[in-house]
Amino acid sequence: MNLTRKDILGLQEMSSEEILLILNRAADMKEILSRDIKKVPTLRGKSVVTMFFENSTRTRMSFEMAAKILSADVSGFAASTSSVQKGESLKDTILTLDAMKPDVFVIRHSASGAAQFTASLTGAHVINAGDGAHEHPTQALLDMLTIIEHKGGIEGLTVAIVGDIAHSRVARSNIWGLMKLGATVRIVGPETLLPAEIRQLPVEVHTDLRSGIRGCDVVNVLRIQLERQEAGLFPSLREYAQRFGVNSNVLREAQPDVLVMHPGPMNRGVEIAPDVADGEFSVVTEQVTNGVAVRMALLYLLLGGSPDAASN
Asked: Which of 10, 32, 58, 265 has the smallest number of Cβ neighbours within 10 A?
């Protein structure tokens, strides 16, 4: 079974069945990562263009690795060395690259809606690798895969998303995905870092860290995104760390087998203490591995890869 949709733009528009299809396929794909030779001919002859208008380490590298493991050809576009620097618009950039006939565009952009705009201009598949503060669907999918591996499922779990919710596309995608798979979602952060519409969603909202993570099965800590913030949203990084930094003392409020997650990059000592980031409950590096598997699954499902080739 393959995905029937052309593009992966966000989890808000995706059904629980589609999400589970991707996660199940990602679990299959992860086996390939454990092999000595990490290469299968599944997508030989297919082409993937990665377009990153914002900096990225984990997302960009994992998409490129995923495509190469599946034997697709990968071309990387960097805005800093492109005609964007000469004033070329996003529309003209997309139309130019689309004329080269790629099969998939993977795009990250600072503007919310950029992925949907790209999808409207091309017949190629488009995967949203993060658009403004809108969504980051593949990050949420890899987060959910990590949770399932440790907890056996998502339904019935309580998941706290802690930190800069207002500016976080990761938070939005996680909220939609987790709710659709039956989790209770808690949003935890200072009032100034909560989006205005958050209380219209079926989530619990907490402005006290201890009460927010009390009894939680999973604590997903978000980065403070200073580059997207206006000044004055909180007094100082030091005060934020004191009130909302997840440390080992605060973590005792959660379940004894709590999972600690972070999408990266981490501001150690601000939103997460070093001993928690590197501690026994942390699954941060596993999230990175699962990112490759999830992105392999999406490319496979969108491009109709051969099951026989995937098992070679």
From this structure: 265
Tell me the domains of the chain and their CATH numbers: 16-135+288-310 (3.40.50.1370), 137-286 (3.40.50.1370)
Per-residue buried b or exposed e for 226-255, using 16+ beta carbons within 10 Å of the residue's own CB: eeeeeeebbeeeeebbeebbbbeebbebbb
Which residues, in sequence order, are CB contacts of 251 under 8 Å at separation 6+?
A: 213, 219, 258, 260, 276, 281
**Residues 297, 26: contact at Cβ < 8 Å?**
yes
Q: Is the pTM of the predicted complex or chain greater than 0.85?
A: yes
DSSP code string of 183-240: -EEEEES-GGGS-TTGGGSSSEEESSHHHHHTT-SEEEEPPP-GGGPPTTSSS-HHHH
